[in-house]
Amino acid sequence: MNVYSDSSHSVIKYLKDMEFNLRNLLIITGDFNICNSLWDPSYNFHSSISDDLFMIADSFDLNLSVPTDQIPTRYSDNANNSNSVIDLMFLQCNSSEINSHTIHLDWRLTLDHAPLTISILIIEEHIPTHKRTLTKNSVEEVEFVNEVITSFTKVDISNISNILDLDEIVSIWADIVDCSWAKHLKLVNITKCSKSWWNDKCNQDLASYRSSKSIKSVIINASWSQPGHG
Predict the structure, then answer these.
(1) Beta bridge partners of 74
(2) Dihedrals φ, ψ of 101, to 5°?
(3) Which one of 66, 87, 108, 163 is most buried, by most CB atoms within 10 A?
C-alpha cells in the first residue's frame, strides 16, 4: 500500500476510521508528513498522530522498518529549515526476508525526497506445461481398461489366508494399474483451452464450424447429442 498523507494527516485519520479486510499485506510505505523522535534522531519530540499510525500498522500486522542507513528522507530548499525523516516503511512482522529498507540519497537529483526501496524475494514456482492423461471414451482408455481387467483375472487369489497375503495381492493389482496406465497414457500440452469436458465430439463440431462457418449447424448437432435426444 502506497500512502501520501498531507500536513493535516488526512489519510491517517481516514485509515483510522475505516475498516479494511486486506489480507497478506506486505508493506505500507510513503510520505506520512509526521516528524517523530522514534524514526528521526535529530527530532526531539513525539507526535500523537504517530500513535494512530502505529495502531493502523499493527492492525495489518506490520512493523516500522529501520533503514540500512539512518539519513533524512526529505530535504529542504530553505537553509533555515532542517532536513527530516517523513518517508517511512512498515513491513510484515516476523519476516526474515523483508526486515529493512534502503534510502537512496544519490537517486534524489532535483527532488526534495529521497526514494525508498526494498527487495522482496519471489519464490520460484514450477508451472507444468504438459500433463499425462487418458481421454475419456478414447481408444487408449478402452485398451487400458481391458488390459487391466485381463491382468487382474490372471492373478491367483485362491490362497489368501491372512492380511499379508491380501496386501501382496493388492500391491500386485496396483502395479498392474500403474504399468498399464504408463503404457496407454497420452502426453498433452496444457493450454488455456485445456478443458476436462473437451472430447472428440467437440473436435468434430469445431471442425464443422471451421468448414461451414455456420454456428447454427454446430448448435443443432450439439443439442441432439445431449442426453434424452434420439
Answers:
(1) 84, 113
(2) -125, 170
(3) 87
Gap between the Cα atoms of 103 and 98, Å rounded: 15
Do 110 and 140 belong together in one domain? no
Residues 102, 11 share a domain: yes
If one counts every other C-beta atom within 10 angstroms of the C-beta of residue 120, the result is 11
**How many whole angstroms separate alpha carbon 142 and alpha carbon 147?**
8
Residue 136 CA to residue 200 CA, distance in Å, equals: 9
Res 220: pLDDT: 52
3-state secondary structure of 74: strand
Cell of 78: 530553505
Q: Which amino acid is at 6?
A: D
Measured distance CA(30)–CA(25) in Å, rounded: 15
Q: Which three cell numbers stand for residue 96?
A: 526474515
pLDDT per position as a tens digit, 145-181: 999 999 999 999 888 899 999 999 999 999 999 999 8
Q: Which of 117, 138, 171 is the last residue of a domain?
A: 117
Q: Is the domain of 78 the same as that of 106?
A: yes
Overall pTM > 0.85: no
Structural domain boundaries, residue 30: 2-117
Single residue among 68, 91, 117 that ends a domain in this structure: 117
Q: Distances from the Cα of 130 to the Cαs of 134, 137, 203, 210, 219, in angstroms?
A: 13, 21, 20, 26, 31
DSSP 87: E
* Claim to verify: residue 57 and residue 153 sit in the same structural domain: no
